[in-house]
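Q: I have 229 residues here and want to know how they pack in 3D. Can you give me a structure?
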Amino acid sequence: MEDQEEQQEQRRDIEAFGSSVIKTERGTIHTLTIVGQIEGHQLLPPTIKSTKYEHILPLLALIEESDEVDGLLVLLNTVGGDIEAGLGIAEMIAGMRKPSVSLVLGGGHSIGVPLAVAAKTSFIAPSAAMTIHPVRLSGTVIGVSQMFHYFERTQERILQFVTGHSHMRREDFMRLMLETGELTGDVGSVIYGAEAVQLGLIDKVGGLNEALECLHGQIEERKVREKGG
């Protein structure tokens, strides 16, 4: 009876938050999916698949404080979205003590880049892609110097986070961000699996098995440190 209730609860979590808990002898892993478009302060139409930051932030706090959860696996397939919401989620993941691994599947575009590098170790599938481009703002833009300064400072926030949580050089990120010959009618670059690792943006090329093995390794290391301390 308890097993059935636990399975029903897991199904509800998957449907509501795109998350599930995996319990094995090696440890308990909370799996969180960030898919579609990152929804910020504005509600997206119901026809658009989205990840709502107001769901993710308290969930991450719960995972961090839970005595039952040993590690976090973040599965990413996102086109990007709201900058403030995306950076907020990324900062939460980066600030966790718990072992964490991210895996880019399909795509980790735009604000998905900071989300991908926020975990302690990042993976990317060989066929996955990541788009690096300058900050874009929707709606009315007032053509004054203050607005352009805001654009620059927002871009700098993203740049500092990505370079601070990966091995990518600042000049390489800027070069890819301002590339004019790759995206049709737009500025920026698309990079793929192995290329993202070569540039130092992502730690390793791999799939679900490699990501889980890495996370279990982090969990074991943490248990050893806690016993020793």
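Q: Anything worth noting?
A: Strands lie at 19-24, 27-39, 50-52, 71-81, 100-108, 121-124, 129-132, 189-192, 204-205. The chain has a mean pLDDT of 87.
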